[in-house]
């Protein structure tokens, strides 16, 4: 419920604050006094788009603040869904800055307009004679039936099943699309994978192959070069080793004469030893090298295959080709494994779908059981409201199409007069009839669920006499279990209020301003007397007002 409403610098309002209480609060005032301004400020607080033209002084900030007591409404889950901080005493503030920028806060935390608009229906429900679209909404009509049927727990169960069904369906769609896309590439990826696997990359050393290829490809030239070098080392008289040994003999004769000569001999001796080792190795290598056309052709074939694969995959090493092979193998295996995943999810989907349909079927049966009672209550409530011949017909049809509230399709038919055929409510009911139907529906709902604060904006326009008395009685009855605010011109309705607020405007310093005043008992008598007989209050009007209040 709303505990207080503060409005500053909005339209004709400079700065007002009004405290609100439980029960039925009546708001009255002359036409043009500013009742619609108060309602406009409340709508702004509940998420209506801001308009700088509605600000009284455009150089100052406009602030509208509402305090709400919501401990009894079980809104913790709603706050969590909207990512808002829950407080049993929640404060909503809306600001319009001189720049035209609008800001909103819930419990001093900045929120978006979307968040505010999503929260608002759980706090305040505003109705006027010309705004009764909710009552023709299939979703709202189903909500009324479910309230009477006591379907809250079963609906939660169904919605959990539906969410699970949607999640599985979404996963299936993704996998099927993935399979469709990957199947287009499967053949090509498989071809590339087989080509790489046939290459036996793990057993290939590209550097060794290239080294061997160069050796075999130039075997004759290498043999000739090695033979020539060895000849220069070993040929008698002129060979390098023979000549070096002769030089060593010469140095050996004088090495004892000087340390220098001895070092020369040592160095030459080392060279001779190294030359002899080189000569031996060259001889051994020369023996291993021989032309092998078959091996050369085989290595050439492997290298050409490697070069081709590296060029195709734009890499330069065998390691990179092996990595590509592993990636392709993973892709191919994933694609081939999608069928198994899809089959598993299809099985899950069918199970969840069956469970959800069973729950929806139970909802359908409970709704069918509740419809006769709802029909009776609505027609009984409308009888004294000037619609004695009002009749409803609920056409509830089950299907296999999932909706957020089950699989039922509902059409509400209505007729207000005997002898006239039933027709869709939104087409056959007049504005006045629609407002009374809305009142009747809300009155029935109030018996079965905790409703937010309801604001009726002149919903009683166009009625009088006993119908007005009955409307007032219904509002009074509803207010026993909820907070109800009624903006009215009818003294019969005004007299039923637990609290009475008068909206008026005055001129001071050549400025017109709207004000709110909570009326005491004597002021209420005068206000209702004026509603009965005009500004010039007679004794009869006073007496009549007192009688209404009593």
Please describe what this structure looks like.
A six-stranded antiparallel beta sheet has the order 2-1-4-5-6-7. The radius of gyration is 48 Å and the shape is elongated. It has helices at 35-45, 76-81, 113-119, 138-149, 152-198, 206-217, 219-234, 240-254, 259-288, 293-312, 318-382, 425-428, 431-446, 465-478, 491-494, 521-533, 539-549; strands at residues 2-10, 13-19, 24-28, 62-69, 89-96, 102-106, 109-111, 124-128, 391-403, 406-415, 423-424, 453-457, 484-487, 499-508, 511-518. 55% of the residues lie in helices and 19% in strands. It is α/β, with parallel strands linked by helices and 550 residues long.
Mean pLDDT: 86
Sheet-strand content, in percent, reads 15-25%
Q: What would the principal axes of the Cα set say about the shape?
A: elongated
Low-pLDDT stretches are none
What is the fold's blueprint, element by element?
Layout: E1 2-10, E2 13-19, E3 24-28, H1 35-45, E4 62-69, H2 76-81, E5 89-96, E6 102-106, E7 109-111, H3 113-119, E8 124-128, H4 138-149, H5 152-198, H6 206-217, H7 219-234, H8 240-254, H9 259-288, H10 293-312, H11 318-382, E9 391-403, E10 406-415, E11 423-424, H12 425-428, H13 431-446, E12 453-457, H14 465-478, E13 484-487, H15 491-494, E14 499-508, E15 511-518, H16 521-533, H17 539-549
Parallel strand pairs: 3-13, 3-14, 8-12, 12-13
Antiparallel strand pairs: 1-2, 1-4, 4-5, 5-6, 6-7, 9-10, 10-11, 14-15
Keywords: ATP-binding, DNA damage, DNA repair, Nucleotide-binding
Family: Belongs to the RecN family.
Function: May be involved in recombinational repair of damaged DNA.
């Amino acid at each position: 419920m709303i505990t207080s409403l503060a409005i500053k610098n909005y339209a004709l309002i400079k700065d007002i604050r009004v405290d609100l209480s439980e029960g039925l609060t009546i708001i009255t005032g002359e036409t043009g006094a500013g009742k619609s301004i108060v309602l406009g400020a409340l709508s702004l607080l509940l998420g209506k788009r801001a308009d700088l033209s509605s600000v009284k002084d455009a150089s100052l900030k406009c602030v509208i603040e509402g305090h709400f007591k919501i401990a009894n409404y079980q809104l913790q889950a709603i706050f969590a869904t909207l990512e808002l901080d829950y407080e049993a005493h929640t404060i909503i503030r809306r600001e319009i800055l001189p720049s035209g920028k609008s800001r909103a806060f819930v419990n001093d935390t900045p929120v978006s307009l979307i968040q505010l608009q999503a929260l608002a229906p759980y706090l305040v429900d505003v109705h006027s004679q010309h705004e009764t679209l909710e009552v023709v909404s299939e979703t709202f009509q189903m909500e009324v039936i479910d309230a009477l049927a006591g379907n809250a727990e079963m609906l939660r169960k169904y919605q959990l099943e539906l969410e699970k069904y949607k999640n599985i369906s979404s996963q299936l769609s993704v996998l099927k699309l993935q399979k469709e896309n990957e199947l287009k590439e499967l053949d090509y990826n498989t071809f590339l994978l087989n080509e790489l696997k046939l290459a036996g990359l793990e057993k290939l050393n590209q550097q060794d192959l290239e080294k061997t290829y160069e050796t075999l490809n130039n075997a004759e030239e290498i043999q000739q070069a090695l033979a020539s070098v060895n000849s220069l080392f070993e040929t008698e008289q002129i060979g390098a080793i023979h000549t070096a040994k002769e030089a060593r003999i010469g140095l050996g004769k004088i090495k004892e004469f000087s340390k220098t000569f001895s070092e020369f001999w040592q160095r030459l001796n080392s060279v001779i030893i190294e030359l002899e080792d080189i000569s031996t190795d060259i001889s051994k290598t020369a023996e291993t090298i021989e032309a092998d056309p078959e091996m050369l052709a085989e290595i050439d074939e492997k290298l050409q295959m490697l070069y081709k694969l590296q060029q195709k995959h734009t890499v330069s090493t065998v390691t990179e080709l092996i990595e590509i092979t592993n990636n392709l193998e993973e892709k191919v295996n994933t694609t081939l494994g999608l069928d198994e995943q899809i089959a598993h999810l299809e099985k899950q989907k069918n199970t969840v779908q069956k469970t959800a349909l069973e729950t929806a079927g139970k909802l359908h049966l409970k709704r069918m059981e509740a419809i006769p009672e709802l029909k009776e209550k609505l027609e009984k409530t409308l009888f004294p409201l000037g619609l004695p011949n009002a009749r409803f017909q609920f056409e509830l049809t089950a299907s296999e199409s999932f909706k957020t509230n089950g699989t039922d399709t509902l059409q509400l038919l209505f007729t207000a007069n005997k002898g006239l055929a039933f027709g869709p409510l939104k087409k056959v009911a007049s504005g006045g009839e629609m407002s009374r139907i809305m009142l009747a529906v809300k009155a029935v709902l109030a018996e079965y669920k905790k409703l937010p604060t309801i604001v009726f904006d002149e919903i009683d326009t166009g009625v009088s006499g006993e119908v007005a008395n009955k409307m007032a009685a219904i509002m009074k009855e509803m207010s026993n279990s909820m907070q109800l605010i009624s903006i009215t011109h009818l003294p019969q309705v005004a007299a039923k209020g637990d609290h009475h607020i008068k909206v008026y405007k005055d001129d001071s310093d050549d400025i017109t301003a709207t004000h709110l005043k909570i009326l005491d008992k004597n002021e209420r008598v005068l206000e209702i007397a004026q509603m009965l007989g005009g500004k010039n209050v007679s004794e009869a009007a006073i007496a009549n007002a007192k009688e209404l209040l009593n």
